[in-house]
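sry for the spam today, last one i promise. struct tokens for design, 283 residues
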């Protein structure tokens, strides 16, 4: 029921974002506002992010097969990575367009900016509340959630820009808002790309050093050393660990169960590892 409920929330946010995107693109073309178009493209990227989150979450629930022994949980990570690349491309495009608009200023109909800016802010704020309870359950949903917060802020900037044009005729504020939105996109997309890349490259979590883990395991009674350590994340929530464990005494294979329990307790409680594999040795 939990997954069905989450799917319904994602579906509702997709409808809201697609509606806003269409309205802002049309309004941006009619009004000549680059800021409005940039906000629309931002919303479009968010629509893509939420669609990817929805599809990836569906795929990640599929059972593992003889070929995919780890299952399909990394579909969410791949989706978040693709979404990050799309956002970077959109941001660079908007910055280039804004610079050209500074060189060749154009008049803008502030009424469309203000009206659709308020519409975008309202819809994105509603979407943020819809996904709030789900944001910590998945890196991909968290990425979509952050997009929506960014969209609400971007819509606020569009509203302020429209007000400045209305009261003071500052048409240069339009490309400036577009650049600010783009820089904000680049700023928080960097974190998403950094984390998803580290997972896809099977890096250890940033706050865990294999050397520290090896020293901790060597302090367990009966353990001589731990080496050939591999730590990696299958997803943003699942950390895998494997290592060769050298014991101080040459014991029976059946007696290693006690060491397995000790090692498992330390690694799960102190380091947060979930999937553990040990190879016991005696030298």
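last one done:
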């Amino acid at each position: 029921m939990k997954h069905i409920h989450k799917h319904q929330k994602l579906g509702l946010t997709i409808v809201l974002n697609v509606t806003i995107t269409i309205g802002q693109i049309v309004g941006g073309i009619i009004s000549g506002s680059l800021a409005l178009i940039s906000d629309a493209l931002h919303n479009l990227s968010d629509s893509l992010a939420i669609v990817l989150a929805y599809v990836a979450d569906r795929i990640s629930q599929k059972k593992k097969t003889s070929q995919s022994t780890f299952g399909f949980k990394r579909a969410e990570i791949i989706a978040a990575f693709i979404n990050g690349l799309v956002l970077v491309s959109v941001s660079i495009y908007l910055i280039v367009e804004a610079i050209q608009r500074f060189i060749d200023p154009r008049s803008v109909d502030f009424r469309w900016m203000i009206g659709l800016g308020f519409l975008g802010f309202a819809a994105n704020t509603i979407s943020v509340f819809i996904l709030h309870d789900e944001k910590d359950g998945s890196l991909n949903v968290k990425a979509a959630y952050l997009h929506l917060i960014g969209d609400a802020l971007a819509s606020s900037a569009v509203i302020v820009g429209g007000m400045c044009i209305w009261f003071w005729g500052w048409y240069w504020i339009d490309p400036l808002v577009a650049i600010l939105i783009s820089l904000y996109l680049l700023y928080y997309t960097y974190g998403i790309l950094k984390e998803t890349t580290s997972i896809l490259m099977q890096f250890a979590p940033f706050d865990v050093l294999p050397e520290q883990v090896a020293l901790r395991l060597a302090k367990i009674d009966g353990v001589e050393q731990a080496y050939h350590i591999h730590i990696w994340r299958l997803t943003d929530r699942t950390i895998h660990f494997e290592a060769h464990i050298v014991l101080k005494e040459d014991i029976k294979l059946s007696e290693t169960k006690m060491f397995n329990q000790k090692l498992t307790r330390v690694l799960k409680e102190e380091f947060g590892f979930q999937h553990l594999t040990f190879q016991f040795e005696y030298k």
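The mean pLDDT is 84. ok im logging off now
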